[in-house]
# Entry
Amino acid sequence: GENVEQHPSTLSVQEGDSAVIKCTYSDSASNYFPWYKQELGKRPQLIIDIRSNVGEKKDQRIAVTLNKTAKHFSLHITETQPEDSAVYFCAASKVEMEYGNKLVFGAGTILRVKS
Amino acid sequence: GAGVSQSPSNKVTEKGKDVELRCDPISGHTALYWYRQSLGQGLEFLIYFQGNSAPDKSGLPSDRFSAERTGGSVSTLTIQRTQQEDSAVYLCASSPQGHSTEAFFGQGTRLTVV
# Structure
């Protein structure tokens, strides 16, 4: 089955700097790669996602890149702000009508933005 | 409701007791998922419902775990004879359809087995 590894486990950056979190996946059939942000005690919330037919996607300060050949994808946050501090999870799935969108998650990255 | 609702938000139970966790998905969402999040870990898939049927139960860790969904809406996750290793946050998510990508998560139920 799919296996997702995420690095680093913790990341501290100065406010205004960029943050990069990387994930690798094992199943070449995976076709959907979301990133979730989870603040302490709250539900995970989707912040950006990418499908396998796209190499990069941006949404304001957040971008995701996908390298299908190497089976890795990355989250890039520019101009970090204290409110970006949270746990970030990457995930991979093979979206199919029969089996739905079963997400396999990485272990998470604790991002701390120091002001 | 406006979002996915789970109850209870917290549950403390004694080892060996049975517990039921409830998930009320977003109205009209046919796909429903249960995940488990252990302390400091990522989310682990448990089961997927499409309507009232469960085409993928591959993540249920043992036969002490079961889930059902009725009326294509509310789902309950039952853990029998709870063990300390069952302590975790149990999260439910729903999507409009099985092949929809975005999953909307509930707040979760924090289960503590003492």
Remarks:
- Residues 17 and 81 of chain B are 5 Å apart (CA to CA).
